[in-house]
Write a structure and sequence with these properties.
The protein has six helices and nine strands, in the order H-E-E-H-E-H-E-H-E-H-E-E-E-H-E. With 204 residues, it is an alpha+beta fold.
C-alpha cells in the first residue's frame, strides 16, 4: 500500500514537471506556420538591434537556436558556419539565436557571444533572446535546433543532418537540401526531423 502511494506521488510529480516544461517552452511551431514575433528587436553581436523581419530576404530565413558551449553545438560548429554562408550565397536570410537566459552571467553572456561569433567567423546575425521570448514563441527546446521559412511560412524544422556526432558520416543532409529547395522557391522533400542537442537554459 505504501509503495503504491509513493509510486502515485512520483507519477503526479513527474506529470507536473513535464507540464511545467512544456508550458515554459510552449508548443513547437507547426509546418506552414508564419514566423512568430517577427518584429521583436534583439541585440546582435555587432551591437545593432535586429529582428527576424530585418534578417529575412525575399526568399526566406533560416533560424538556428544555438549557444556558445553546448557539446552538440560544438560538434556542429563547422556545419552551422557553412550553412549560414550557404544561405548568404543562395539569397536566404539567416539568424542564430542564443536563448540561454539562465547562463547570461556566464558562458552565454553577450561578451562571450561576441568572442564566439568572432572565433567562428560568423557572417550572419548572432543575437540575444532576452528572457527566451523567441524560443518560447517557436516552442524551441534544444541547441542546435533549426527552423527554415520561405515567404509563406515554416517549411523545415529539426536537425542539420542525420549524424550529429560526425558530419563526415552524415548520409542525409536535411537542412542543406531544404535551403536549396527554398532558394529555388520549392518545398523541401523532408520537412521535419528530430533535433538532438542540449536543453535551452531558461530562467525558472
Amino acid at each position: 500500500m505504501k509503495k503504491g502511494f509513493i509510486f502515485f506521488v512520483l507519477l503526479v510529480a513527474c506529470g507536473f514537471l513535464l507540464s511545467f516544461i512544456n508550458t515554459s517552452a510552449g508548443t513547437e511551431l507547426g509546418l506552414n506556420a508564419p514566423m512568430p514575433m517577427a518584429d521583436e528587436k534583439m541585440k546582435d553581436v555587432s551591437g545593432k538591434e535586429v529582428s527576424l523581419n530585418t534578417s529575412k530576404t525575399s526568399k526566406g530565413i533560416l533560424v538556428i537556436f544555438s549557444s556558445n558551449t553546448c557539446p552538440y553545438v560544438k560538434l556542429s560548429e563547422t556545419r552551422i558556419k557553412e550553412l549560414s554562408d550557404e544561405c548568404s550565397k543562395q539569397g536566404v536570410g539567416c539568424i542564430i539565436i542564443n536563448s540561454n537566459e539562465a547562463q547570461r552571467a556566464d558562458e552565454d553572456s553577450f561578451d562571450a557571444m561576441v568572442k564566439y561569433a568572432a572565433a567562428q567567423k560568423l557572417n550572419c546575425a548572432y543575437v540575444v533572446d532576452a528572457n527566451s521570448k523567441i524560443a518560447d514563441a517557436f516552442g524551441a527546446t534544444r541547441t542546435p535546433q533549426c527552423f527554415l521559412f520561405n515567404v509563406k511560412g515554416l517549411v523545415y524544422k529539426g536537425a542539420i543532418d542525420d549524424n550529429v556526432k560526425d558530419p563526415a558520416a552524415a548520409k542525409a543532409h536535411y537542412l542543406k537540401d531544404a535551403i536549396d529547395a527554398v532558394a529555388k522557391n520549392e518545398t523541401p522533400k523532408m520537412q521535419e526531423t528530430k533535433s538532438i542537442g542540449c536543453t535551452i537554459k531558461r530562467v525558472e
